[in-house]
Amino acid sequence: MRQGLDREGGWQRLHPLSPLTRIGRLAPVIVLSFLLTFVHSNGQQGPLYYPVGVTAASVVFGFVHWLVTRWKIEGDTLRIETGLIRHDSKRLPLARIQAVDLVRPLLARLLGVSELRIRLAGSGASDGRLAYLSESTALEVRERLLRAPVAPGPGAGGQVAAEPAPSLSSGAPVPEHLMALVPSGRLIGSIAFSGLTLLLLAIAVALLVLAVTAPKTAAAVVGFLAVYIFSFAGGLWRRLANEFHFEAVEAPEGVRVRRGLLQTVSETIPYGRIQAVRKIEPLLWRPMGWCRLEVDIAGGGRTTQRGEGSGVVRKALLPVGSARDTWHLIDRLIGGTLPVMTPPPAQARKKAPLSYHFLSAGYDKDRAVCVTGRMRKVTTWVPLEKSQSIRRVQGPVQRRLGLATVHIDAAGKATRAEFRDRTVAEADDLVEQLSDLSRAARQHRAMSLAERSSDVGAPIPSGWYPDPSGRHQQRYWREAVWTEHVSDGGATALDAL
Amino acid sequence: MRRAELALATVIMAFAVGLIFGAALGALACGISVLVVIVAGALSAWFVRNRFRAWRYQERHEDLIVARGVMVRRLSVVPYGRMQFVEVTAGPIERLFKLSTVRLHTAAAASDARIPGLEREESARLRDRLTELGESRAAGM
Fold it and tell me: Does the pLDDT at position A125 exceed 60?
């Protein structure tokens, strides 16, 4: 397989078991059609044309799909061709690949295959999918795709990193630094202490009481509420299944998240594309000191209408974490030290008597941080270099009290930090300060981009390059800086430059 | 422009309401209802006038400032470099008065930089200038 990967011009097929795995997706439909036939024939062995037909059709379809799908890595593009009737040929330039997710549904896990989902910068429409590849091939292709095309090494006078990272040629997975994991007990606990569960419990108790006092009404109410109960329970189950075995590890190109009970997903969140970080502490979790960490990243999955918050997705980075784990992650993502946080002036209490308690905000030269909410305390970090616009909004009540709110908008639908209910003078000052600081932050970033591209005329892509310090064979270069990730003969380690 | 829309709506409303009440309750009811509608129209015309007077914009060296609102006062600072595209629209009534609306889009859905009721030459100038500045200072996401 590996020789095939590196051979130029060689088309590859998906794993021979992929048609079978694809059927796994249709399993509910097939089971249902069998059941329906069974029910219709009143328990007797009725004609099975329909279910057998469905199964046969899906097998044939899956096989044909497998037959006509092929892919190869050609120079610095990945090409995928598929389709019997409607031919579909995709070229994905490796340099534009933003993230590669590894998805394994239950059946795929049993058969030892996995699906690769490739997301490009800019659009969400032209995403590539390779379903399915054998485990080892999938890992290898991911490494290959994430390792940007071999280019002159940064810094060291255009020195060329000719050989691929030794860890890749040896085929061993790159060891990663574990940042946080969610024990099953805590996840179950967090779901048990969520609003949805309480609602379900309340319904159950109410129904029990009703069943004792007036059984007939209870039956009617159950019938009425059944749909809601099922959908709520389904939501809880999805959360459990999606966030089970949650693990965040530090990979050189970002934070890699692995999760899933039946279907496992492994996705990478690159540092450079984080628009905002959000820490959420619901009331019920506070006694345990738990919190949830979410990030908004650019260039993800679905695209929305043009201009209206282009392609930003919200992802859980830690569905439920201890305070220590959360701070560790925040520290890696955006810098752990909080700027000086100030509460709004006392007259704001008149406007927001309930939420005043936690309300505070602060900024330094890199980011703005704000805390909002009473029942559900939310702390938001927005890097100033990502700010898209700064707004000052003043409602009629605020005007009477001499207050105003300042928003710092990042890309996305509702991605922002807000300095809520500040005095008018402070708000005016904030608008000026924050626009100046974000301009400075942007210029700083643009300059560091220009600096590293001045040698070769184009930004140097992230990847493994010869270590400039000479202590190790290779060191990871991310966007504009050398990281502390080093590699010697296939083993990676951490060593600050 | 909005006022023209409003005046038109008021006249139509007054006519319709007068007709209905006149037929149902007689001439007095007809007169009162027409008066009410006209007063309401005049009031909203006054609101619209204030709203448009409060709408201002300023082109600074690095960013565009748009301020608007009477009840809820909003002020947006949008750096030229963050601009994704400029949209110029002109509805049928706007076209009648040779006006158009310029709108600045950024990657954030919330940044709200819309300038309505610009004269045609001004909107064209603004569009070209914003595009030019956006290109020279492009920073994307």
Answer: no
Q: Is the pLDDT of residue A124 over 70?
A: no
B16 and B30 belong to one structural domain: yes
Return the domain boundaries, chain A. 2-146, 147-172+462-497, 185-241, 254-452
Architecture of domain A2-146 in this structure: Roll (2.30)
Instruction: Inspect the interface and report whether the beta carbons of B110 and A391 lie closer than 8 Å.
Output: yes
The string of pLDDT tens digits covering residues A375-416 is 889 999 998 888 888 999 998 999 999 999 999 988 877 788
Is residue A301 scored above 50 in pLDDT? no
How many structural domains does chain B have? 2
- Kindly list the distances between the CA atom of residue B31 and the CA atoms of A233, A327, A497, B39, B41, in Å, as whole numbers in the listed order: 61, 71, 86, 12, 15
Kindly determine whether residue A308 and residue B109, on different chains, have CB atoms separated by under 8 Å. Answer: yes
Q: Which residues of B touch A388 (CB under 8 A)?
A: 78, 82, 106-108, 111
Judge whether B65 lies within some domain.
yes
Furthest-apart CA pair in chain B: how many Å? 68
Q: Which residue of B has its CA nearest to A440?
A: B62
Domain that holds residue B98: 57-136
B48 and B61 in a single domain? The answer is no
Do residues B47 and B76 share a domain? no
Q: Cα–Cα distance between A153 and A151 in angstroms, integer? A: 6
Nearest chain A CA: its distance from B68 CA (Å)? 10
Question: Which residue is it, tokens 């990847």?
Answer: A463
A217 contacts A210 by C-beta, under 8 angstroms: yes
My answer on whether B130 and B83 are in the same domain is: yes
| ipTM of the modeled complex | 0.78
- Residue B141 belongs to some domain of the structure: no
What is the distance between the alpha carbons of residues A465 and A152, in angstroms, rounded to a whole number?
Answer: 9
Contact at CB, A442 and B62, closer than 8 angstroms: no
Of A395, A404, A411, nearest to B107 by CB-CB distance is A411
Q: Do B139 and A431 touch (CB under 8 A)?
A: no
Chain B touched by A124 (CB under 8 Å): no
Interchain pair B72, A308: CB under 8 A: no
Can you give the pTM of this predicted structure?
0.72
Expressed in percent and rounded to 5, the helix, strand and coil fractions of chain A are 40, 30, 30
Same domain, B30 and B67: no
Question: Residue A112: helix, strand or coil by DSSP?
Answer: coil
B119 CB neighbour count, 10 Å cutoff: 12
Q: Which residues of B touch A (CB under 8 A)?
A: 62-63, 71-79, 81-82, 84-85, 87, 105-113, 139, 141
Statement to judge: residues B62 and B131 lie in one domain: yes
Together in a domain, B16 and B69: no
Do B103 and B67 lie in one domain? The reply is: yes
Shortest CB distance from B108 goes to which of A388, A399, A431? A388
A444 touches chain B (CB under 8 A): no
